[in-house]
Amino acid sequence: MRIEIPLFDGFDELDALGPFEVFRNAGLDAALVGAHGEGPVTGSHGAVVGTTGVLGRPDLVVVPGGGWNDRAERGAYGRCSAATCRGRSPRSTRTGCGVAAVCTGGMIVAAAGLLRGRPAITHHGAVEDLRAAGAEVREARVVDDGDIVTAGGVTSGIDLALWLVEREMGADVADHVAREMEHDRRGPVWQRPT
Fold this sequence. Notes:
By secondary structure, the chain is α/β, with parallel strands linked by helices. Helices cover 29% and strands 21% of the residues.
C-alpha cells in the first residue's frame, strides 16, 4: 500500500507527521510529498520539512490541515480560498484512490466537492464550515465512510492512521504500533453500517 501525504506551506506539522510515523512504524510505504512540487515546505509552526517528490498515484492520500480556524493565508484556508482548490482534489475517489483527511484537511477535501452528502468530521472550530460545505457531520474522533476517512482535531490524525492500519493489517498490528509509540488510542470511530 502506497500512502502519500501532500505538504503545503502552512500545513499543521502534527497532522502530517503523526500519521506518517504511524504508517512507517507499521511497515507501510508512506511518503511526504510536495503539493506544489518537490522541495522544502514550511509548516504552520515554522518547521521546515523536505518532501521526496510530488503527488503520484498512491493507494491513499492523507490530507493535513492547518491555518483554517485563524483564516491564515498559508494553510488549508488559504488553499481553499484560492481558485486552485475549488472543484479539485489531491486525488478523486473516482480514480480508485482512497482519501483521508486530518483536522481541517477535511475542509480541503470538502472544497473539492468530495464530502457533499457524506459523513465526515473536522476540527471542532470548523464543524459549521464543514456542515455548510454539505457534509453530514458525525460526532466521532474518526469517521470511516469507506473510501474517505476523516478525523477531528490535530492529535486525532494519529488515531486515524492507527484505524487505517487496523483496517489494512489487523488490530494486532495497530495495537503494536500504538504501544511502540506509547499512544493510548482514542475513539470513537464511526463507520458506515454494512
